[in-house]
């Protein structure tokens, strides 16, 4: 009963509090019973849940009702998916901010299906490339699992989608999608072009994309946590990194380039290891092996991301494909030295070289890194500004709210392309917050409790900006190449000067 009174209180009718507890409880219980009855009879009045009905009357300044994860027997009411969450989205504000520019890539990623639309046949053909299929019908989520993915990536991705439905209750349209939660590209352009253009490519969601692939880019699982390696949900990690970055001013940080990670996932990472400090040569680079097995055994003492902001420069290098580390690296207020990536995630295409990061080519990267560090130490104002701008991008544009808004718009635009009415596939099972989180233990459970959306948003999603003109995309690609060339030119001039000096010295 206390809980019900508390809910009432939260709804902002605290002035009634004195006479509340019992009357409110009786009222609420009868309301719930009537509601349940009407619902059972499928009488449509019950579109809005009782809690929302109350909140409507006190619209202006109410606190939002909070529905945390509750796995007790009573809360579940004998069901896997209890009905305990308000099911109507009623924003108080009509805020119409425009979403950040990186949202414009949504149109680009869906372009492939603009004319054909997405048919059930395409979904059928994509199944073999997916770990699971996720269908939303009337706000309920159904999942059909095809393959066992790596770690708990898929679970946290489904979790993220469930949170989106809690944030924008009733606003996420019906849809039917395939998700691949591995690293490698699945749907290659070359298989659907030229003489191969006999069938349309299946739409498959994935965490990253590349020039060669047609996969649809979706925020990765780490935004809700990476339990296997103790990386908290993004909101908490970001604020921890922010604090970590404040501990040491840029000038007081080590004047070298830092990287810590697992080098054994990719050839080019092993190649990077050659740039590490030796007793013979110093490339201004300090590299550290992150042995996750060892870190797990030792309780993750040495792997905290917020403790990795004590170098002026931080290296970003891709893993097997993209790496989730990008956002953590950029958030440190250090200048990011980005080894030319081949893959992008949903926000990274809008990062601009020499504005948000310093570009490093793949070949001869040790030399590039050494030059970048020396340049930065000589031009500390500019290096700091690049570091700051990169962090600002992450801290201000990559908020969790924007991550949800991105998901919302991507799914919304995607659903507009569907040529069929999504229905629950026969083998799919309903999932909900409780069915996913209640069986979890340890960090998995903790991160879910941490990242759960407790109440519907009080404002609508930001407004999706229009697509980029094709020329604008070309110009941005061009600009990136130009900047990289510029940096190489500076480096050449510099090394020529060095060589000349050496030659001079040998002449004297
Ligand atoms: C969970 O729900 C039950 C039944 O509604 C309630 O008694 C209990 O206080 C709730 N627990 C939490 C942590 O909200
Ligand atoms: C057609 O697809 C095959 C198989 O992936 C590929 O090897 C070939 O290069 C493609 N053809 C063209 C013209 O792109
Ligand atoms: C790089 O060099 C430093 C200093 O010698 C050393 O502590 C570190 O373990 C080396 N890193 C790798 C990945 O070998
Ligand atoms: C990582 O640590 C584990 C346990 O301490 C050890 O057995 C393993 O050899 C280490 N791996 C590497 C690549 O150093
Ligand atoms: C940095 O400054 C030193 C001393 O002025 C100079 O010798 C060196 O060439 C500069 N390096 C770069 C990359 O600007």
UniProtKB/TrEMBL annotation:
Chain ranges passing through the membrane: 20-41
Residues of the Glycosyl transferase CAP10 domain: 171-421
InterPro entries assigned: CAP10 (IPR006598), O-Glucosyltr/Glycosyltrsf_90 (IPR051091)
Domain of life, per lineage: Eukaryota
Keywords associated with the record: Membrane, Transmembrane, Transmembrane helix
UniProt protein name: Glycosyl transferase CAP10 domain-containing protein
Biological source species: Hibiscus trionum
């Amino acid at each position: 009963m206390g809980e019900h009174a508390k809910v009432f209180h939260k709804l902002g009718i605290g002035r009634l509090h004195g006479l509340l507890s019992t009357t409110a409880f009786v009222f609420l219980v009868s309301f719930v019973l009537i509601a349940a009855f009407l619902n059972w009879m499928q009488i449509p009045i019950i579109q809005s849940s009782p809690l929302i009905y109350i909140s409507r009357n006190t619209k202006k300044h109410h606190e939002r009702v909070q529905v945390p994860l509750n796995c007790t027997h009573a809360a579940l009411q004998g069901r896997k998916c209890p009905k305990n969450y308000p099911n109507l989205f009623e924003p108080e504000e009509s805020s119409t901010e425009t979403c950040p520019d990186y949202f414009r890539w949504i149109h680009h990623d869906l372009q492939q299906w603009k004319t054909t639309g997405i048919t059930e046949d395409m979904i059928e053909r994509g199944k073999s490339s997916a770990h699971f299929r996720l269908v939303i019908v009337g706000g309920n989520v159904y999942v059909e699992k095809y393959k066992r993915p790596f770690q708990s990536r898929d679970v946290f991705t489904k979790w993220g989608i469930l949170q989106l439905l809690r944030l924008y209750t009733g606003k996420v349209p019906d849809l039917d999608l395939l998700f691949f939660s591995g690293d490698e590209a699945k749907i290659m352009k070359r298989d659907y072009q030229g003489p191969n253009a006999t069938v349309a490519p299946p739409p498959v969601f994935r965490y990253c994309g590349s020039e060669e692939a047609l996969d649809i880019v979706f925020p990765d699982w780490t935004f809700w946590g990476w339990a296997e390696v103790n990386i908290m949900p993004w909101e908490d990690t970001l604020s921890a990194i922010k604090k970590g970055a404040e501990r040491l001013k840029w000038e007081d940080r080590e004047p070298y380039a830092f990287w810590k990670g697992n080098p054994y996932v990719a050839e080019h990472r092993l190649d990077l290891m050659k740039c590490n400090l030796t007793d013979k040569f110093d490339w201004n680079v300090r590299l550290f092996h992150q042995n996750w097995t060892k870190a797990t055994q030792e309780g993750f003492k040495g792997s905290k991301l917020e403790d990795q902001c004590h170098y002026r420069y931080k290296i970003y290098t891709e893993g097997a494909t993209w790496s989730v580390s990008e956002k953590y690296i950029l958030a440190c207020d250090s200048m990011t030295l980005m080894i030319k990536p081949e893959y992008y995630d949903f926000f990274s295409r809008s990062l601009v070289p020499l504005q948000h990061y310093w570009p490093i080519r793949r070949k001869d990267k040790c030399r590039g890194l050494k030059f970048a560090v020396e340049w930065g130490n000589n031009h500390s104002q500019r290096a700091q500004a690049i570091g700051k701008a990169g962090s600002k991008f992450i801290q201000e544009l990559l908020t969790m709210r924007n991550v949800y808004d991105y998901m919302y718009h991507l799914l919304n635009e995607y659903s507009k392309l569907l040529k069929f009415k999504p229905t629950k596939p026969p083998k799919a099972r309903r999932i909900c917050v409780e069915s996913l989180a209640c069986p979890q233990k340890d960090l998995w459970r903790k991160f879910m409790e941490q990242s759960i959306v407790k109440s519907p948003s009080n404002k609508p999603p930001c407004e999706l900006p229009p697509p980029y003109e094709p020329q604008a995309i070309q110009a941005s690609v061009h600009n990136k190449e130009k900047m990289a060339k510029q940096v190489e030119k500076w480096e050449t001039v510099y090394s020529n000067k060095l060589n000349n000096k050496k030659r001079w010295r040998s002449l004297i």
